[in-house]
Amino acid sequence: MALAVSGAWTAERARELEDIVDAAAGRYQGTRSVDIDLQKLERLDTFGAWLIERLKRKLTVGGATARIVNLSERDRGLIDEVQLVNRDTAPKRRVPNRALSGLDSLGRATAEIGWSLVLIAHLLGALTLAFLGTLRRPSRLRLTSIVHHLDRVALRAVPIIVLSTFLIGAIIAQQGIFRFRPFGADIYVVDMVSVLVLREVGVLFVSIMVAGRSGSAYTAELGAMKMREEIDALRTMGFDPVEVLVLPRIVALVIAVPLLAFIGSMAALYGAGLVCWLYGGMSPEIFLARLREAIWLPTFEVGLIKAPFMALVIGLVACTEGFEVDGSTASLGLKTTASVVKSIFLVIVLDGFFAMFFAAIGM
Amino acid sequence: MMHAEPIISVRDLVVGFGAATVLDHVTLDMLRGEILGFVGGSGAGKSVLMRTIIGLLPKRGGTIEVLGKDIAALSERERRSIERRWGVLFQQGALFSSLNVQQNVEFPIRENLKDLSPRLTEEIALAKLEMVGLSADVRKKYPAELSGGMIKRAALARALALEPDIVFLDEPTSGLDPIGAAEFDELIRTLQRTLGLSVFMVTHDLDSLHEICGRIAVLFEGRVIASGPIETMLASEHPWLKSYFRGKRRRPVRH
Hints:
The structure holds two protein chains of two kinds. By secondary structure, chain A is mainly alpha-helical. Chain A folds into two domains: 2-84, Transcription Regulator spoIIAA; 107-360, no CATH class. Chain A has helices spanning 14-28, 46-59, 73-84, 98-136, 143-153, 158-180, 188-227, 230-236, 241-278, 284-294, 297-324, 329-360; strands at 2-9, 33-44, 65-69. In chain A, helix 1 (14-28) runs parallel beside helix 2 (46-59), helix 2 crosses helix 3 and helix 4 (98-136) crosses helix 11 (297-324). The radius of gyration of chain A is 35 Å and the shape is elongated. Chain A starts with a strand and ends with a helix. The model of chain A has no long low-confidence stretch (mean pLDDT 89). By secondary structure, chain B is α/β, with parallel strands linked by helices. Chain B has two domains: 1-85 and 165-255, 3-Layer(aba) Sandwich (Rossmann fold); 95-163, no CATH class. Chain B is built from nine helices and ten strands. In chain B, strand 9 and strand 10 form a beta hairpin. In chain B, helix 3 runs parallel beside helix 5 (148-159). The two termini of chain B are 27 Å apart. Classes of the chains: A mainly alpha, B alpha/beta. Chains A and B meet through helix 1, helix 2 and helix 3 of A and helix 4 and helix 6 of B.
């Protein structure tokens, strides 16, 4: 029995060749002795060579013999080479139990949450140590670095923060006027807007913006540094990466967020005032007079006191996630996402705790 | 195997960035079936030439012909079919870090030969991995878990996935220990013979140049100043070639 192989056995034709090979193997399996004749073979590459090898292996199942004949010198190397490959069949992967693997991933996710809190606490400790170190020797504080980061996270964030908080203030005021007017309670829109903005929305919204804008950048930067072994390089030169990289970034954030929260709150009040005037027909004098009655200094303080803590949480989460990046680019994306999601979530949780605290002390 | 027909033909190629001209009227031929070693000082523009040929960098003048076709004159579709006929091994491997080794090799096969059965795709990928000497337990690993030598081998397997006619190697032995480098040289030569490849190799490794390169081309100050077999290089009196091939780190000359 002889099978003649002819034409080009190359990658482009691999699809049809596979069908031919499988058909031939099916038809002639069990034939005691088969010659595979390569006389008319024109071109051969690894795809073709492997398919010939596959045919040969299928035909030899069950003690039959299959030989390759008329093999040209040109193709000998390739045919010899593929005889060695794909010999060991990979062990079949066990199909995991669906319920068990569900429980497994639930457990892992839970442990992951706990572990990420531990890591944040760990970095907080290292940061405190580094901070105390710079207090003892202020010359070690990297002022240039802090100013550089302040420029990035504070100054350059001002336009977008002003614009979006302005709109938020305007929208809240518009909704307030629209709903309060039927009750003749237009004037209380000022109370609602000012308390809401100064106590909660101003700082919360700014923190969320900063987490998305600067927290993600911190994670990506530190992650890329980790990938390119820059952090290891720092460590071998006797520098503490926390002191050199993390401290300036977090100090800059702690300075920036209260400033941005203040600017944002003012912009929101401005937006609210403008809407009250143009949409609600409330003159600016009345708006300002009502504002003076509606709020007092602690309203403002309650908002701004929270800002540095929000900044600390954002910075810690961002830097922790950055250090958690491993060699792959996928993990960089994953950790940057995790950084933003976690810091926004923690900022909101923290805001809740502050609300309970201030309620308890009657502020 | 050796034919005198050029498979890559570069004529008067000019490449520059801003005010700097990196390649100044470079002319170079690579013949079918040869291993061409391409040397030059750091920053001389070796990688720039390679990247210009494969179309990653724009040229300012001159022509590049690959497989007898002027690259600049091709339509998008013709370009793609040419691109399928070369494989590139980047200096750092450039394996896709979100795919494991086997998926990395399967990727070009699956994307270019769409109607291939998953089974054949897998078998071919595994065959390629075995041909470059990677054992079965490496298949499911991700690039971040591999050593430098394994990355180079896996990247070579990926470069060979589509049965290219030409393989571009950017410093294939850099970062490998001498034993690993010698093995890799051997691997390149074996594969070149088995698969009938033409190999364009940018390298600094004198051992590679001695052992496997049939011909060597030298880039100096933006021009190809010499090309020929290693003996020509050793005999040259050009000061840079003298210090490169006969300097302190030269190999003991065997006779």
